């Protein structure tokens, strides 16, 4: 388990969620 990969996935998902919320 790579902490960097987990952190990257978390940031990516959070950014995607924020983008979707901003668009909607």
UniProtKB/TrEMBL annotation:
- Protein name per the record: Uncharacterized protein
Q: What is the lineage of its organism?
A: Eukaryota, Viridiplantae, Streptophyta, Embryophyta, Bryophyta
């Amino acid at each position: 388990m790579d902490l960097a990969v987990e952190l990257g996935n978390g940031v990516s998902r959070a950014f995607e969620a924020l983008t979707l919320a901003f668009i909607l």
